Amino acid sequence: MDIKGFVRQVALEAKAGARELGRATSNVKNAALLAMAKGLREAAAALLSANEADVKAAIAKGLSPAMIDRLTLNPKRIEEMAAGLEEVVALPDPVGEITGMVQRPNGMMVGRMRVPIGVIAIIYESRPNVTADATALCLKAGNAVVLRGGSEAINSNRAIVEVLRVAIAKAGLHKGAVTFIDTPDREAVKEMLQLEGIIDLVIPRGGEGLIRAVVENSRIPVLKHYKGVCHVFVDREADLQMAQDVVVNAKCQRPGTCNSMETLLVDEPVAGEFLPLVSAALQAAGVQLKGCAKSRAIVPSMGEAMEADYYVEHLDLRMNVKVVDGMEGAMDHIAQYGSLHTESIITKDYGRAMRFMREVDAASVMVNASTRLSDGHQYGLGAEIGIATDKLHARGPMGLEELTCRKFVVLGTGQLRQ
Amino acid sequence: MDIKGFVRQVALEAKAGARELGRATSNVKNAALLAMAKGLREAAAALLSANEADVKAAIAKGLSPAMIDRLTLNPKRIEEMAAGLEEVVALPDPVGEITGMVQRPNGMMVGRMRVPIGVIAIIYESRPNVTADATALCLKAGNAVVLRGGSEAINSNRAIVEVLRVAIAKAGLHKGAVTFIDTPDREAVKEMLQLEGIIDLVIPRGGEGLIRAVVENSRIPVLKHYKGVCHVFVDREADLQMAQDVVVNAKCQRPGTCNSMETLLVDEPVAGEFLPLVSAALQAAGVQLKGCAKSRAIVPSMGEAMEADYYVEHLDLRMNVKVVDGMEGAMDHIAQYGSLHTESIITKDYGRAMRFMREVDAASVMVNASTRLSDGHQYGLGAEIGIATDKLHARGPMGLEELTCRKFVVLGTGQLRQ
């Protein structure tokens, strides 16, 4: 079969799986998840051996140590995958809830019922744990998945998917609930993205390049974030000790994440006092600072920030510092350079706190908190499938609810349109 | 300036307008809407004269009488446009509402605030009233619009937009809140659809061809419905008088609409009794029936339905009839031929009513009601910007709330990530 026909056949299997999964009760879905966790633990030796083949090939191809680390499975990571499935069992099932049911003047009842989206394609890079994690969240919300992982992980992913499908069948569900595009051919992704009407949603997980390629080629809605260029704005009436603690935490607690701070914005009246303190604390933590001319006049040890630097998601211990003219200056900077991810103001002033919260356009807007708290677990959503920086359907951390949609339900007694 | 630069400039003006409009209170937005209504009434003579030029050109080009009717303005239609703006004033403003605010274990408060989407492009055909109607709904929800109407209506649209922009400025808002792609060049639409990051959402309004072209070319999320192929399923335990009333209403009350019934599905045990009755009623109303072999064996005057007929949105008094084997047969037919718009079951059986409501995948699922009731006004949403048959963001009739999104807001006291 050609690649087009193959991809279509897999997606149609998922569509059949989705129809059956959409009717399944929480009990049945939870039984499937528990069977998956058990299956992963029992198959650990086979998974490690499949993964070894991927890792050997990756070393031979000269992939970076960071990529090889992401690709590598070990007994601890397999146990984490299994435990992750069990955590999803514990989350409440969003499907079936009816909200806003009202009686209309003609007597009919109208409300909205939360239902699965249908078939979700997950396109990801070389981390095999995504195979289990993403499947678990989609399945709990009643969706079938079409998985397409990076070609470097194909042996690992094939082995994991086989375990998941056996578990699905044991729970009495259609195997199409979990499907896998088992080819390294890059054309397969392009074909997936044309299958409007079969695949309902695409979630790409990986670097900006992967995500841009998906958006450019997709006729199917995509939930995504390109990058996180997050700011902390230290207002003229900030508690400067709190500001320093938040800035250091937002940058240093885990710099490789999308919710870390990339640029510190400091209100001019407090720059002279705050910048020497915070720079010393950041430099002591190993952070390399680039600043605007005003920042460098206060802290001459900073490098020089060029305009292009303000667009960069560093993902490491580099960051920018800019002195701004009040909250207007901060909001203008964020509107220009921000990525709609997470923005935080540090202030004791009520009016500016409220204005920042209302007017800043981002998935998460914070007052007096570290941007690193922008996260599904921290917000109480349970596990998250990703963070969306678009504005449609979901914004910010996406949990189970964001993997569902709502249909209208009408309960009548023979009502007609007048 | 080339077309690309022109379209980009218009969209950037809208983006600037959106930032200011997003901060505006309901009072200011309502004042703008009232000024718009007043402006349209006062400019009636100028609008009619601009419209006359369009209508003359359309007649000269030999457009169909139906198209010319949709294009034509008269004093009554201008008054309806103005009154429509005033109706939107009366609707509650969804912007600013915070829901689900909870305190997390570390003491920070996390909730979701409803905010405008930003810049919305409306791409439509030759009905100039859409210019005012769509603008009003977008503006009330805090969004700037980029309007692109059919080239046949360009003089009418230009004149209407001029009135709306004068009113916007009078209310003290940025004129970019209402922008118009003032060129008949078809390339302009393609350029609009590339402006990811400037335009946040595209809503095409028109025939299936227009909508498919938009989806194929857009990198921006699109809210749409291609067509409405709606079904009424008459279950073996239906009240047959109610079933007949609903079927006649669903087909005949206004057959040119997307929520009219296209195919009647009749459960086999009641087909012999029900089909002669309903056929007579439908035929008396001028409906032309095409049936499956079983239907024609009962009512020989029906034409023969081919498989392709079941995919057709007739938009007139033609329809299909099919005898099915129970609700499983009905649900299989709907899954295959339905357009995810509106589906209705007529039954007295509790179990089948509940199963149909849960399991049928459509934007609206009804029990004992006419599909013609699938509508924003009927559901109590107020005016609607359209009906979505996709599953992301909005499903079914879209009112003001569907023209907004929700961001996370976090109110902290210095919380850090541990």
Structural description of this entry:
Two copies of one chain form a homodimer. With about 425 residues, chain A is of the alpha/beta class. Chain A has two domains: about 5-225 and about 400-410, Aldehyde Dehydrogenase, Chain A, domain 1 (3-Layer(aba) Sandwich), CATH 3.40.605.10; about 230-380, Aldehyde Dehydrogenase, Chain A, domain 2 (3-Layer(aba) Sandwich). Helix content of chain A is about 45%, strand content about 20%. Chain A has helices at about 5-25, 25-40, 45-60, 65-70, 75-90, 130-140, 155-170, 185-190, 210-215, 240-250, 270-285, 295-300, 325-335, 350-360, 375-380, and strands at about 100-105, 110-115, 120-125, 145-150, 180, 200-205, 230-235, 260-265, 290, 305, 320-325, 340-345, 365-370, 385-390, 395-400, 405-415. In chain A, the strands form four sheets. In chain A, strands 10-9-11-8-7-12-13 form a seven-stranded parallel sheet, sandwiched between helices. In chain A, a hairpin with a 5-residue loop joins strand 1 (about 100-105) and strand 2 (about 110-115). In chain A, helix 10 (about 240-250) packs across helix 11 (about 270-285). Chain A is globular. The N and C termini of chain A lie far apart (about 55 Å). Chains A and B meet through helix 1, strand 2, helix 10, helix 14 and strand 13 of A and helix 1, strand 2, helix 10, helix 14 and strand 13 of B.
